[in-house]
Amino acid sequence: MKLTGERPMEGATPDSLLALHDAGYREVIARIGNGRILDVGCGVGGETARFCGDNRQVIGVDYSPETAVLARKEWGPGGPRGTDAEFAGMDGAQLGFNNGSFDWVCSSHIIEHFTGPETHVAELARVTSDDGTAFVITPNRPADFENPFHVYLFEAADLASMLRLFFHEVEVLALEGDDVLQADFAARRASGERLLKLDFLNLRRHMPRKWYVWGYEHALPVVYKMLGSANTGIGSGLDDSHFFMADEVTDTTPVLFAVARKPRRFPEH
Question: Distances in Å between the alpha carbon of 58 and those of 37, 41, 55, 62?
Fold first, then answer.
């Protein structure tokens, strides 16, 4: 799969960002039990496969059918790293499942990609069972890097407010990084800001978004190659042990971790 900056890729994405995703799934896994589990935005399937276990039925969906096919070939039944997980191509704002189909629903680093995130949250709530739980993991807006794929960013209060439209019980926690992780993020943010200064006319803010995305996709591999692994954080060895959960969200908190229970049910028109 080609590096575009939209999806984390081992060997091509900074280790700290891979660790960030690993830590989010680690925390979801620590909070779930048996039953039916849905992973929305499964990507190539490695994280989804971690949900598998006895008395669990795991399904991963991705908006890209091609990516879902790759996930199934690698991580599905009969694949080289085969598990019991199933995969399908599906829009996170139009999930093809019945109401209340899942005991546990995970949306990891997906909501920030929606221009209308309420459609995604509505679907998460719809497919979550009455006594089920949904987890929403997303960058914390004050700490996030500029990324054209991130079109709707949240602070803790914003995310809680959005989720409470569709769930009765919502808790937003902090997925924090230790000092080593924060230093890595600060160094890469500084490198990125130096590069952005080359766009001294701020042209990226005035061009059509699809042009900006195209330029970002094509420039990122070149920039990573020019900077070398020491500056990009690839091969740094940072892993999910540098992340921990906390109750208080601050401006430097890298990730928001929301737990939503008791989905609201609305009469169908």
Answer: 5, 13, 10, 14
* CB 21, CB 108: distance < 8 Å: yes
State the SS3 of 77-124: CCCCCCCCCEEEECECCECCCCCCCEEEEEEECCHHHCCCHHHHHHHH
**Could you tell me how many residues make up the chain?**
269
Q: What are 129-138's pLDDT values in tens digits?
A: 999 999 999 9
Which position has the token pair 């908006």?
63
pLDDT, tens digit, 9 for 90 and up, residues 52-82: 999 999 999 999 999 999 999 999 999 999 8
CATH 3.40.50.150 fits 15-41+92-263, yes or no: yes
CB 36 within 8 A of CB 101: yes
Write out pLDDT tens, residues 105-123: 999 999 999 999 999 999 9
Q: CB of 174 within 8 A of CB of 24? A: no
Residue 164 confidence (pLDDT): 98
